[in-house]
Amino acid sequence: MKIIDAHNIVRQYTLGGTVFKALDGVSLTINQGEFVSIVGKSGSGKSTLMHILGLLDRASSGQLSFAGQNVYELDDTHLAKLRSNEIGFVFQSFNLLARTGALDNVMLPSVYTSKKYHVKDRALAILAKVELLDKLGNTPAQLSGGQQQRVAIARALINDPAVILADEPTGNLDSKSGEEVMQLLKGLHSEGKTVIIVTHDDDVARNAKRIVRITDGKIVADQLV
Could you read off the pLDDT of 8-18 as tens digits, one per residue? Predict the structure, then answer.
């Protein structure tokens, strides 16, 4: 089943009177349960594509559907609800609240979802899964980089999303912590989650089952590994 279906996506900006196309006619289908890496150098358009696939930005033109629903027919309220319920984000810079403990950081996205569950119980279960039950009250400054990213992954899972979108998830980590994070993402894929990693690093990309390469706003390769 198609979970994401993008057709002829263009995202352009006007800079100093000049039109710049960050994405130039991108078409991409991702099926439910896939593990996909989107790979490209800085400026290739990979982060722009991630923001569009994650419903954080709108294409200038083209079509995008999520689980069969045309997302550009939705108003901002319904689009935000779809994003909160069905997409979990993991960022290179972690994006944790600085003065908030791990448990409360993980529970935060539950405020924005329409899904019903016991938030604290679920957060504790997920923190156990990422081996951080002994760090519930620790703020980000009291955690290592790898621990912060594990909190971020737990936060991404709190609403039981269909898709995990990870933007350079190992970019700020040492090699050991990066490998631990990748093992977590692999585990989520094995449990049935659709996992999409955006990266510049071929070694990270090879953890996925499918690699999509983007250059100058265009997909130049799409292959199974």
Answer: 999 999 988 89
Three-state secondary-structure class, residue 40: coil
Phi-psi label, residue 177: left if phi above 0, alpha if psi -120 to 50, beta otherwise: alpha
Question: What's the chain's Rg over C-alpha atoms?
Answer: 17
Angle (deg, nearest 10), helices 145-157 and 119-129? 140
Q: How many domains is the chain partitioned into structurally?
A: 1
Rounded to two decimals, what is the model's pTM? 0.94
Residue 176 reports pLDDT greater than 80: yes
Q: Containing H/E element for 167?
A: strand 163-167
Q: With contact defined as beta carbons under 8 Å apart, do 197 and 180 qualify?
A: no
Angle in degrees, CA 163, 168, 171, rounded to 5: 145
Q: How many residues does the chain have?
A: 225
Q: How far apart are CA 43 and CA 218, in angstroms?
A: 12
| Position 118, amino acid | H
Full domain range(s) for residue 183: 2-224
pLDDT in the model for residue 110: 87
Tokens representing residue 197 in the block: 């990693």
CATH classification at residue 122: 3.40.50.300
